[in-house]
Amino acid sequence: MKKGLIAVCLALLAFPAQALDSTVVVTPIFKTMRTIADQPIELPQKNVEVVVSTYDIAPGAMLPVHQHHYQRYAYVLAGTLTVTNLESGKSATFTEGDFVVESRSEWHQGANNGTEPVKLLVIDQIEQGAETVTLKN
Fold first, then answer.
1. In angstroms, what CA-CA distances link 47 with 57, 73, 128, 129, 136?
2. Which structural domains are found in the chain, ordered by start?
3. Disulfide-capable partner of 55 in 1, 12, 76, 120 (CB 3.0 to 4.6 Å)?
């Protein structure tokens, strides 16, 4: 059932809003060509694999320091997430409804500093078989 629903959603996204009748409402959420570290978005050049996950992050929880070598996107379904780039020292806070284009190959860390759980929908575009996350030792 989920695969069918995803296929329908992707098919609807392929249509420009003006091509749909009044029974379908398309609401743009986000548009960018850059990551949160101001890098251009880059996609794998061969054997692209899409990995979709959900993350549930408890209040007070902190993700380990990590980086992504391929493009990662996150949609905040609930809660407040703070992402700190350890290389630049900059932090950004994202709340319900925000879309995040994560940095590539830069060490960063996410944290739930709020009192409510954070729930994310995460989409990775990687070369087939590659890891989505590299942890810092």
1. 31, 19, 5, 9, 26
2. 31-135 (2.60.120.10)
3. 120
Handedness of CA 27, 53, 43, 7 (dihedral sign): negative
Q: What one-letter code names the amino acid at 62?
A: M
Sheet holding 99-101, edge to edge: 48-57, 118-127, 71-78, 99-101
Tokens of 19: 């091509």
Instruction: Please say whether the beta carbons of 122 and 68 come within 8 A.
Output: no
Cα dihedral sign for 56, 101, 52, 110? negative
Helix (H) or strand (E) holding 73: strand 71-78
pLDDT digits (tens, 9 = 90+) for 19-42: 667 888 888 889 999 999 999 999
Contact between residue 85 and residue 37 where contact means Cβ atoms under 8 Å apart: yes
Residue 126 tokens read as: 């990687």
What's this model's pTM, rounded to 2 decimal places?
Answer: 0.81
Q: Which of 58, 41, 54 is nearest to 116 (CA)?
A: 58
> 62-81: per-residue pLDDT in tens?
999 999 999 999 999 999 99
